Amino acid sequence: MSTMSTIIAFIDGIDEGIARLVLGDEGEEVIAVPICCLPKGSKPGEILQLTFTKDTKQTLAAKGEIKKLNDELSCKR
């Protein structure tokens, strides 16, 4: 099983620092993304490739922190 996936995103427009991205070849979904997250100079009408990767190290750290907080809350009851 791959820990990475890629999807095409069309920049439909940019308003007040927020880009509307139409995802997928069929335009199945639209998401809003701050333009600071896009490559510098991105403009409406351009196509981006979005790549998502799992961050196992950060996931485990977050789970550990959540467990720690839950344990602390349990002790206060």
Can you walk through the features of this model?
It is a single chain. The protein is an alpha+beta fold and 77 residues long. It has one helix and four strands. Strands 3-2-1-4 form a four-stranded antiparallel β-sheet, with no helix packed on it. The longest helix has 20 residues, at 56-75. The mean pLDDT is 92.
- Read across the widest sheet, the strand sequence of neighbours is 3-2-1-4
Q: How are helices and strands ordered from N to C?
A: EEEEH
Structural class: alpha+beta
Biggest sheet character: 4 strands, antiparallel
How big is the Rg?
Answer: 18 Å
Could you tell me how far the N terminus lies from the C terminus, measured between alpha carbons in angstroms? 42 Å
Mean pLDDT across the residues is 92
Total strand segments: 4
Supply the number of helical segments. 1
**Proportion of β residues?**
35-45%
Low-confidence stretches: none
Cα shape: elongated
Helix content: 25-40%
In short:
It is built from one helix and four strands, in the order E-E-E-E-H. With 77 residues, the protein is of the alpha+beta class.
Describe this protein with a few key phrases.
single chain, 77 residues, alpha+beta, four-stranded antiparallel β-sheet, 40% strand, elongated
Give the helix/strand layout.
Layout: E1 4-15, E2 18-23, E3 29-34, E4 47-53, H1 56-75
Antiparallel strand pairs: 1-2, 1-4, 2-3
